[in-house]
Write a structure and sequence with these properties.
451 residues, mainly alpha, 21 helices
Length: 451
């Protein structure tokens, strides 16, 4: 309980070589219902209000404490509380108009972007995006060396999580160009990881492999194989492997990343939940031919169980985990030899997909790639439920959105066109239309490969 006292925890933060033990103790308190992250964020915010009129040395110490506390809370996955700490710290930095404090303000913007991106607070992230550019411009006029690569990396992350992949890719290239040898291994690893993901979604797989394998190597050498940063790199390496159809290896690497996160955090932690979800999806793809989805289902349900305990019911992060479980339940239902079991599982999958779609539309709106993907998932499910007209409607919506956002020759469009072709061919007896769609899907795929 002493950890709830800001002064005591500030001393613990100074023992950097025992950080894994601090994470263990912190998570144990959280699991026992002690909202230590919330208490510390409240205490720090109140402290900043009290010292607004204090001398500069007092405020400087508070700023340094804020950066340290925010870093720990963010690393531990308590993004909402880390954001509150950084907002208070940012306000202190803004009180002094000078070059040194503009640099601190920019660092606050970078950290706020990081927490808001990962916690899906896109409106607030947009405001921070604009403010960060303001301070970067101020500092660039003074020709000072600033942490610009991290800033561009967070810009990339913001556009990536919103599925604006062209912009994400552009910022990833800018971030890579800004890398230099004097930056910390953490910054270098994060830039390489984020750039790799941007390359994967643009289907630049050779470049993605080069970037992510280097990120894994640096993380292993700098932090060791039991560090959260190493698990971060492993997750992104697995993402690459999954997208180049190295499914079995992807499953093994996802499992290794989960093992690291469980050993560091354990308990009801968002990092652990995300690793369970990612492994669940990889297992779902891996076991697609065998029909043995028990392990995939277990990991998906574990992810949802953890998220339900630590996130609001309508949080966007719930959408992805519910989607993964729905996909798994659909396959289990199809393979079931009991009509009642099949109907029950398909209805449960439908309920999960509809919730996921509603959360995506609330966060992104109708015209977003993620929303389109949810429509596509519903289309396939309705097909399994023999609700063919509804399936057609969902696939057409997915195609229309993807074409508008990505263009008619994008790989994502090809996937949705292929799904509609399958519906027409196998269930609606629209063979001529199916043939035309199959040919279009193949044509797009060929075009994508040659680009």
């Amino acid at each position: 309980m002493e950890f709830c006292e800001l002064d005591v925890f500030a001393k613990a933060l100074k023992v950097s070589d025992k950080r894994h033990l601090l994470h263990h103790c912190f998570q144990a308190l959280m699991d026992h219902g002690v909202r230590v992250s919330e208490v510390l964020a409240d205490s720090y915010s109140q402290h900043c209000c009290v010292i607004h009129a204090a001398d500069q040395a007092v405020k400087d110490r508070a700023i340094q404490l804020g950066l340290s506390l925010e870093g720990f809370l963010s690393d531990a996955g308590w993004y909402s509380d880390s954001e509150r700490v950084m907002v208070a710290c940012f306000q202190l930095c803004k009180l002094t108009e000078s070059f040194a404090y503009w640099t601190k303000c920019l660092e606050c913007c970078i950290r706020l972007l990081h927490s808001r991106n990962l916690y899906c607070r896109f409106g607030e992230a947009d405001l921070c995006y604009q403010e960060a550019q303001y301070y970067a411009q101020k500092l660039s006029c003074l020709r000072d060396s600033i942490n610009i690569s991290s800033l561009y990396c967070e810009f990339c992350s913001l556009f990536f999580v919103r599925s604006q992949y062209d912009e994400a890719y552009r910022w990833s290239v800018t971030a890579l160009k800004a890398l230099s040898s004097f930056l910390s291994p953490k910054v270098i690893v994060d830039v390489l990881r984020q750039a790799s993901k941007a390359c994967v979604v643009k289907r630049e797989f050779r470049r993605a492999e080069m970037l992510v394998t280097e990120a894994v190597h640096i993380a292993k050498e700098a932090f060791g194989m039991k560090h959260p940063k190493y698990s971060d790199a492993l997750l992104d390496y697995s993402f690459y492997l999954l997208n180049v159809d190295q499914i079995r290896q992807s499953v093994h690497v996802y499992q290794a990343a989960l093992d690291v996160r469980q050993s560091v955090f354990g308990g009801n932690n968002i990092h652990v939940a995300v690793a369970h979800e990612d492994l669940a999806y990889a297992l779902y793809v891996h076991e697609y031919s065998s029909g043995n989805f028990n392990d995939a289902r277990e990991h998906a349900e574990k992810a949802i169980q953890i998220m339900t305990k630590i996130l609001p019911a309508d949080h966007l992060l719930m959408a992805s985990s519910k989607r993964v479980k729905a996909l798994i339940l659909e396959e289990i239902a199809i393979d079931s030899h009991n009509k009642e079991t099949e109907a029950r599982l398909l209805q449960e999958a439908l309920d999960l997909h509809l919730v996921a779609l509603a959360l995506a539309k609330k966060a992104f709106g109708e015209e977003n790639v993620q929303t389109a993907k949810h429509y596509g998932n519903l289309g396939r499910l309705y097909q399994s439920m023999h609700r063919y007209n509804e399936a057609q409607e969902m696939h057409l919506k997915a195609i229309a959105i993807k074409e508008k956002l990505l263009g008619p020759e994008d790989y994502e469009v090809a996937l949705s066109v292929g799904h509609l072709a399958s519906l027409y061919n196998y269930d609606m007896e629209l063979y001529t239309e199916a043939e035309q769609l199959y040919l279009r899907s193949i044509s797009i795929g060929t075009f994508t490969l040659t680009c």
